[in-house]
Amino acid sequence: MVSQNRYSLVPQHRLVNNRPCKPVKYLKPNQMKSILKKLTYGHYILTALKPGNEMETREHDYIAAGTINWASQISFEPPMIAVAVGQKSDLNETINYSERFTLHILGEQNKEMVEAFGSKSEISDGKINGYPFFKRDEQVILENTVGYIECEVKKHIHLGDHFIYFGEVIAQKSMDDSTPVLCTKEHPLEYREEIANA
Hints:
14% of the residues lie in helices and 38% in strands. By secondary structure, the protein is mainly beta. The strands form 3 sheets. Strands 4-3-7-12-13-6-5 form a 7-stranded antiparallel beta sheet. Mean pLDDT is 82; it is low at 1-11.
């Protein structure tokens, strides 16, 4: 009988085409996390806006913003990217309302933004968490980043403790081609389960 414990280190025998195959060894949770930490990611700020005139319960635009690490291009034609957002983030509601989002690429000069957008956002005097922004085509654009990518959501799914949004690129702008892009290898900042579920 095959064990149902996926993290067991005890060899498990499986049948392929009614023939026994080599035993499979599964990792314990702490071993798996140790390996996953070796993956490298970027540091990004994700923003979304839902115009107030489209919402029955609000008079003003509703804006959400937050730091994310998991983003990737997934298609050349049409150009598409995927972003993962913690399931309890305010970003989910706003992205679902607007069906659009903007991914901001950060550079070395934006290190402080990573932590500044790591919790609830405060908006006042034309700034989010103290950083200036402007609105373009009903999207929030942060100033002084390396660039940004605006997307229209084509699909989203809920997997594990994250929502994954698949967005088709509808606009993009590179504002600083000379600055190295900020990533977890040069600027470690551990993204943990507690943060995702906060």
